[in-house]
Amino acid sequence: MSAVTPQDRDVALERALWALRAYDTMALATASDAGPHVAGVFFAPERTDAGIRLLIATRGGSRLHRELSADPRVAFMCSPGNASRWIQGGGIASIVDDPAQRTEVARRLIDHAAGAEAYVEGPDVLPVTIDVRWLKVVEARDGPHLLLAFDP
């Protein structure tokens, strides 16, 4: 984030994390030569020194896995089906290759999104981290929106 005080940055990050923690699934968009693609995924938000990271999982060899491997840029949206409340953002995905880290990332994902457990424990599932680059939180149609940009 730029041009804000450390206190303002902390308040904005906590507000964004509070909003994200209200959800455990999101629509994740990728793009490739095959065209755009959207997948529903379980996720967990985390605060990092640089901003916000999302944890997800994908099956090895799936279209989502192939597209994340070819082009890590993603967009996402969380919505309760209400046009007045939603979160959207974009970021850079990284597949977790280290087997020791895979177990830890999967555990943190399940801690937030309990429904992910059956999926994460399936065969060929690979955890993925998404470093959020930008985020828009809309809590009311007429209210001010929270807009965040994170430096890479």
The SSE order reads HEEEEHEEHHEE
Number of distinct beta strands: 8
Approximately what portion of the residues adopt beta-strand conformation? Answer: 35-45%
Please report the number of helical segments. Answer: 4
* Biggest beta-sheet profile: 8 strands, antiparallel
Mean pLDDT: 92
Structural class: alpha+beta
**Rg from C-alpha positions?**
15 Å
- Poorly predicted runs of 5 or more residues: none
- Helix coverage percent: 25-40%
Question: Would you give an account of this structure?
Answer:
The protein is globular, with a radius of gyration of 15 Å. It starts with 5 loop residues before the first helix and ends with a strand. With about 150 residues, the chain is of the alpha+beta class. Helix content is about 25%, strand content about 45%.
Briefly, what is this?
This protein is an alpha+beta fold.
Attribute tags:
27% helix, eight-stranded antiparallel sheet, 8 strands, alpha+beta, 152 residues
Fold topology:
Layout: H1 6-20, E1 25-32, E2 35-42, E3 44-47, E4 52-59, H2 63-70, E5 73-82, E6 85-95, H3 99-112, H4 117-120, E7 125-138, E8 146-149
Antiparallel strand pairs: 1-2, 1-5, 3-4, 4-7, 5-6, 6-7, 7-8
